[in-house]
Amino acid sequence: HAGVVQMASLLPARRARGPNEPGGIKFGVLGDIVQANRKYPNDPARASLEVVGAGVMLFDQIWLGSYMSGGVGFTQYATAAYTDNILDEYTYYGMDYLKDKYGFDYTNPSPEQIIKPTQDVVNDLATEVTINALEQYEQFSTLMEDHFGGSQRAGVIAAASGLTCSIGTGNSYAGL
């Protein structure tokens, strides 16, 4: 059925668990499936966070966790992105930084205020969000307890930095 409606691309045969399994949903398609832009049309940060939450559940926990690592412990890695509001806080810090330093109002984006995605701008945005996140982890011990692994912290910081860069510049490659 999934192949008939072209819901996803095929998984490698050794990874597929059944003939009708929806494997390999493309990232852009997942963003359309979540449709957070309809619910939060004036908040691209919230809309993006909703896609991140669905993405880590589907891609990281289910497919990577089950298929690649056998599901032993890996599933705990992805929960950091959607089980609390820590990623949200770091992302909105980035949105505030965009407004304070560059005059970019993320609630009302327009082509005139998009920041040119130079390497210096990307470095500045990612560094600021990363430093803020690291300071928060040091200041609040409960954050360290919640995100108990370095890979969890690194993933959350990378997501917040990437969202800040891509939303501010309007360039998805800047977020990578």
Textual characterization of the structure:
The protein has a single domain (27-175), classed as Methyl-coenzyme M Reductase, Chain B, domain 2 (Up-down Bundle). It is built from 9 helices and no strands. The longest helix has 25 residues, at 44-68. The protein is mainly alpha-helical. Helix 3 (44-68) crosses helix 8 and helix 5 runs parallel beside helix 8. It has helices at residues 27-34, 36-39, 44-68, 74-78, 86-102, 119-139, 141-146, 150-169, 172-175.
In short:
By secondary structure, this protein is mostly helical. The protein has one domain (27-175): Methyl-coenzyme M Reductase, Chain B, domain 2 (Up-down Bundle), CATH 1.20.840.10. Helix 3 (44-68) crosses helix 8 (150-169), helix 5 packs across helix 6 and helix 5 runs parallel beside helix 8.
Defining traits:
single chain; 176 residues; mainly alpha; Methyl-coenzyme M Reductase, Chain B, domain 2; 62% helix; globular; disordered N terminus
Task: Report the sheet with the most strands, covering strand number, pairing sense and barrel closure.
Answer: none
Number of helices: 9
CATH topology (fold) name: Methyl-coenzyme M Reductase, Chain B, domain 2
Q: Which geometry do the CA atoms define?
A: globular
| Rg computed from alpha carbons, rounded to a whole number of angstroms | 18 Å
CATH homologous superfamily title: Methyl-coenzyme M reductase, alpha/beta subunit, C-terminal
What is the number of beta strands?
A: 0
The total tally of domains equals: 1
CATH architecture: Up-down Bundle
Per CATH, the class reads Mainly Alpha
Which class do the helix and strand fractions yield?
Answer: mainly alpha
Query: Uncertain regions: pLDDT < 50 for 5+ in a row?
Result: 1-5
Mean pLDDT: 81
- Please trace the helix and strand order, writing H or E for each element: HHHHHHHHH
Query: How many angstroms does the end-to-end distance come to?
Result: 33 Å
What's the helical proportion of residues?
A: 55-70%
Q: Give the amount of beta strand, in percent.
A: under 5%
